[in-house]
Amino acid sequence: MALVDRIKCDARDDSTLVWKHESEEIKLGAQLIVNQSQEAVFVKGGQALDVFGPGTHTLTTGNIPLVTKLIKLPFGGQTPFTAEIWYVNKTVKRDLTWGTRTPIQIIDPVYNYPVSIRSYGQWGIRVDDARSFVTQMVGTLRLAGSQKIEDYFIGEILQKLSDSLAKYFVEKNVSAFQANAKLNELSTLTMEAIRPEFARFGVEIVNFNVQNISIPKEEQQKFQEILGKRMEIDQIGQARVGAAYTTMRTFDTLEKAAGSQGTAGSLLAGGLGLGLGVGAGIPAGQLMAQSLSSPAGAAGGDIAAKLQKLKALLEAGLITQEDFASKKQKILEEF
Length: 335
Fold this sequence. Notes:
The chain has helices at residues 65-71, 130-140, 146-172, 183-200, 217-259, 263-274, 284-292, 295-315, 321-334; strands spanning 4-7, 18-20, 25-34, 38-44, 47-52, 55-58, 80-82, 84-89, 93-99, 104-108, 113-127, 203-214.
């Protein structure tokens, strides 16, 4: 490859983070041209050596001391040498996007139910330390293409996002179904988690946003069904406890009445002694329980159960406030 005496390299577009000059055959006395918002880094044997900022630089042993020391270039003349020259774009990039390629699996801490979460958002970076960036990303990982570098960072973002979501939901006792109400907090938490990893590569993260968190519709529907069944089981359990309580209260009332003086007390005492209701052949406890659990009371319990279930669906984010108000009105009209 012919020696070059003018070194200049323009990126294909502004989205490119780093690119390499095509020739590695360089001679002393050549002019190195670096555009605004760029830095040029000389790399030899995987080491990032001398760095040049914007401007036109004539390469001499005086301004490439690290290259000179490593290669042991003689002073004077136009001695040729080989080295890689990497150009680094130092402009701020705010319009980068990220998204989950596969769902993040977590256990909802409120409902103790496994859910799959998908998410997407935006992020922005700026190369703060070109030498460190080239050494870490190009020298060590050998990632030359901008897309490969972004893919690496997106992988870090998704890993930290997964950890941040699980930690946040558990510590704050927040359901995954309410995650979209917490996007600002989750964005800040994830950004702080990924900042050290970016800084390790000489990159400053300037913005990070979680724009949406979603759960697949089929999982939401399945969760609604399971939540409904759980509530039915809870209601049955509560009904049994309520019936037992009513029976106990009935006997307490009858015992007190039987111990009281007067005709009513005598009659009830006789009824309790016989185990019969007054003149009907019905056990007294059953008679009182029937009176306390009248159709009106049962209807009221059904109404309360329906309203409780409706409220739970609203809090889980499975219905809107408008749906809640409409269905609530219909339930109350049935009472």
